[in-house]
Amino acid sequence: MTSQLVALCFDANDPLALARFWAGVLGWEMADDPRDGIALLPSDDTGFRIRCLPSQEKKIGPNQMHFDLTSTSLDDQRQTVARALRLGARHIDVGQRPEEDHVVLADPEGDEFCVIGPDNEFLADCGFVGALACDGSQEVGYFWSEALGWPLVWDQDQETAIRSPHGGPKITWGGPPVMPKTGKNRLHFDLAPPAHGDQQAEVDRLVSLGASRVDIGRRGVSHVVMADPDGNEFCVLPPLA
């Protein structure tokens, strides 16, 4: 048994505005969320939803993960950038070089994302959401491969990438140096055991792979908060109905 990646969750000061932004950029539908946020349902092969959750915390420093959006041509790339800017994105400088063919933007909450040029071979067989690019160690790439049952599609020079057997975006980790973690990540994964699975058994399995439980001081919630080997938080939900 392996966990299913149910959602990528964004902490947001204004969840509705952030959900509207990403719905407009990705062309996904907004839906009521079963917990306390707003959900976006994929209209492509992404395989997981986006959840925008309310948070009072302000963003400090770059996120540990960001979307890489693909382009079919230079004109397509320009159109994606223009659409994102219209919806409330802005250009940001993260040290990218002028000769690099990707455009770095931030959403209305400051969350970074990239619009990749059309000649990127690594994402050539991916859809519009080409990758979820993460700052992380080789060890954490191995952990998530085992946790999700997704095979490694890249493992060189301590850089790793995994992808669902059903397609969709790649999840990548850039290897060392890994950015020091400061506080709770604004983005995290929601996992769930398959239907009729056992939440506690899955938590125990993830601990055996290198995860740890995190005490957030909240009682009576149905999800279990955990951290991967790099200390990045994620949640294990009850089994899917």
Automatic annotation (TrEMBL):
Transmembrane segments: none annotated. It comes from the Bacteria. CDD domains: VOC. InterPro entries: Glyas_Bleomycin-R_OHBP_Dase, Glyoxalase_6, VOC_core. Residues 125-239 form the VOC domain. This is VOC domain-containing protein.
